[in-house]
């Protein structure tokens, strides 16, 4: 019978209040945002928090905007909102690609960007997407705000740098010219977690790769990224041959584990194949030549 | 034999050759036709009344503690902390039940099954203890307070090792048991088949697994048991497809007098065979109400449903097919290893341990066939016959349709031509197969040709060739199936000695409205509509004026229920016969009303009129009132207007169908896209074509699911790897193309209105079409279901996955 164990419930009225509640209730308390990971885990009694601190009233964590030359996405932005965001479409289509394949409309209507990142599921899609974009996470605690690069945000499966009494408040992605980005995912069925997925962001200077980011999902890539493949591409020509080689390099460095979604060799193959495909589409977008 | 056909094609770009899509009648027909479902007004308003919607006064809630191990000895169970919980009313263990003689119960397959484990647990998720508490939260909390000391044992997970020397003996509860063997069973003529194979020009063989899958109905199983301590009457609200069978089994198992048991099946949210058997939770709820004196509700959650209730298939098959060098099929034979789990609890005709699997010679004129089936115990949940399988015809159709494709591939023959060349011909009906079945009717070549025409088969093959030139992978898969549905007759088909016949009672009220009482039980099939339409067709009463009562054993006649697509063939026939009995009575009443001889009356739908004088007539409503009135009736004619009937089917009905699937495969990732699916079904006369098409749609989605994603695998410790919808994948609309349906109609000659069953046709027929299409696309001889992206990619590399075990 899937019913949760008993817990206390608090409704936060602001970020400072939420932090105070986290401080008061300690490590056995959990923030609840969309609840689409936490509540099922509680019903299965995999998670048994003593206190839920509801942050759904925190309007200061909502909204998508361009602020100080960066795309700012509030932690409480729902997946559906990011999926439909004209700013995301314009600047970072990788986010729209990723959102389109996250779960289903019911989950996307409720689940949040911050919730996904903080859940830190190795198969979660946005972590790789923000990693590819060289995004920055903004975390607030009692002593104020701090910024952490997306690729330093995760410390392991289901683990992040966000402290017990801290809240992820927003994600920022610096906007630079010449960018193109894309996300490619293989799933067994629509709405399933990724068997593997690859995201790529390119900043082209003519035909040269000025900057590049590659994010990989569910293939055991440390911090969701592929630095060796990025290093290979950076400063070189953006060609099909080099994208294929980057895929090969990315595949070489991942550490996938077999599960019912697929064996290790297949996931390693996908890491390469999807890296190459994402790079190809990102380049086409950067050139404004996507079919 | 007459054959008619119509086509409803709804995919863009495909030119329908005949008639338009099925029209839904806005107004109610007085008989057959695509009228909207009477029950839907209730369901779409959220006014269905399912098991979990029912709350009885004072009702308590049960929860089951389940085994985390696949195989372990129970050293001790300490329930004291749970019993001390302030909201807990009772904790029941196997020991408690043993005291009542209820620790074990009979299965539907000559075995016993633990209700709550006493000695050992034999599969992960097996029932160990039952808590009754004031609410479901407390019941669940208390499960965590029960301490069970287990001594883990080696588990038998790979069915292929179950009979190995030294394998752990799972059923040491059975006297003298030293291995995991359940049964050996065979059908067909082994010698004749061997002879055919010895002389054949060509033989193709193939090992294939039809993996363990689960029906996963939207509503899980549950029960509310309520024993009245004063009257001694037990009322059980429960999710059952077969309420009368349940009542009798409760009487036999619990020793309760049968007239003091009332089974009520409320609305059921899908069954597919999952809700045929009696589960331990049901028995525990009954014990719970007896112990506490108040009603006890137990409703399982999704994981419990997937882990512990009736699964389907799990057939390891080695098939062989023989033909001449010209492609004339000669023989087929198969050896099956059947994984039945820890208890032999398959729900099928008692005399047939492999169900109706021995229809595996399929739709072809094959001289000789033989099968040998061995059933084994493993440390997995019991079951095997569920999920719209028509008693294992799913496995049979998959076997023959894969073998035909393998043979075609080996010989370079076109799979459509090979099928067409070997189909049973229309003039051969009734056709007796090499395995002894008498197929009633069909025009197989016409049905296949129709599917090929809708598909544009030649053009598809051209497109495929062009794409191959460009390195793109496209596949076309065909299956042609013959179903066998509508079990009995009672002398050959029974469950626990109860013959497979079904009753119907029809009562026309004085004002001409009617109530029809049935022994079958809808799980969403639309019985309230279809059966009302049958009466409407026979008596001329509007379907809206006919109440269909089902599911309550105190309100309905005895019968074996709804499974294996038997409602229309059996209860439908019972309904026709009972309506005709009423019509005969009405005729005598009408004769008395009109003061003529019954022989002078003619039936015009809805009224009897005097031959040659249409002005002298009586409508059914007038007749009904007269039958209840002071009208003097002829001697020997009872008043009122009602009748009862029990229908014992003379034979099964044999629907058929030709399915064609078109897929595109991404060579770089192994992902499969089902682009088109053409389904031409022949289920005889269609009472409500819209409902038939709905049934077909659902079954086709099942086929896509089984072929591409659905799976319950187990790791070497016996952990269930498909125990939630995160791991057990059901297809969605996104995986389904817009179905392209067609039909041919060859009425069943032995059914009173020529109807055949259809509920499971598409689930039975579609998986091989999808698999054949994928393997055609990637040029691989065989790979087992499900063809997930990983599996397709591996199969392309000649290294297919063993899908019943954990991927490592």
UniProtKB/TrEMBL annotation, chain A:
The residues covered by the FAD-binding PCMH-type domain are: 2-178
Superkingdom of the source?
A: Bacteria
- InterPro entries for the chain: CO_DH_flav_C, CO_DH_flav_C_dom_sf, Diverse_Substr_Oxidored, FAD-bd_PCMH, FAD-bd_PCMH-like_sf, FAD-bd_PCMH_sub1, FAD-bd_PCMH_sub2, Mopterin_DH_FAD-bd
Pfam families in the record: CO_deh_flav_C, FAD_binding_5
Which keywords belong to this entry? Answer: FAD, Flavoprotein, Oxidoreductase
Tell whether Transcription regulation is among the UniProt keywords: no
- Oxidoreductase recorded as keyword: yes
Protein name, please? Xanthine dehydrogenase family protein subunit M
Organism per entry? Pseudonocardia humida
Q: What is the lineage of its organism?
A: Bacteria, Bacillati, Actinomycetota, Actinomycetes, Pseudonocardiales
Automatic annotation (TrEMBL), chain B:
Q: Which UniProt keywords apply?
A: Molybdenum, Oxidoreductase
Chain positions covered by the region annotation Disordered: 1-20
Entry EC number(s):
1.2.7.4
Q: Where is the Aldehyde oxidase/xanthine dehydrogenase a/b hammerhead domain?
A: 45-154
Task: Give me the segments passing through the membrane.
Answer: none
* Enzyme class at the top of the EC tree: oxidoreductase
Q: Which Pfam families match?
A: Ald_Xan_dh_C (PF01315), MoCoBD_1 (PF02738), MoCoBD_2 (PF20256)
**What Gene Ontology terms describe what this protein does at the molecular function level?**
anaerobic carbon-monoxide dehydrogenase activity
Superkingdom of origin organism: Bacteria
Name it: Carbon-monoxide dehydrogenase large subunit
